[in-house]
Amino acid sequence: MKEIVEAVSTVFEPGRIGVRLSPNGVYNDMGSPDFREQFFYVAKHLDDYGLAYIHVLDGLGFGFHNLGEPMTLADLRTGFGGPLMGNCGYDLAKAEAALEAKTADLIAFGRPYILSRLSNSLANGWPLTDYTDMSAWYSDGAQG
Length: 144
Known about the structure:
Layout: H1 2-8, E1 18-21, H2 35-47, E2 53-57, H3 73-77, E3 84-87, H4 92-100, E4 106-108, H5 111-115, H6 118-124
């Protein structure tokens, strides 16, 4: 990761670079018993670059490797002083709480944005579209 950030920094100013981390991820057998130490180390060293943000998949909506307590934005905030963006499982109330608590500077809405008219849903308090069954997303044809 260090080599990639430094290589990209030769093309773009660090303040235009974001890094995405998934400390709680389970995809492709992610996770290790020392994941907390690994991600604290990474966050601390990424802080030295003056990045635009770290985008953290901190929710557990896509599974959790169960190799310790899940990492939160508040955990990573202790090692990274730059902007933190949370992602995964946020609704308006959770997003506002994270922003008010200053554990997050930004919240990303991925799948709810794709499936909902997000700004209208949030402004009107409408529920976000359920995306728990994503089997159609990866199928052929118009539905996929």
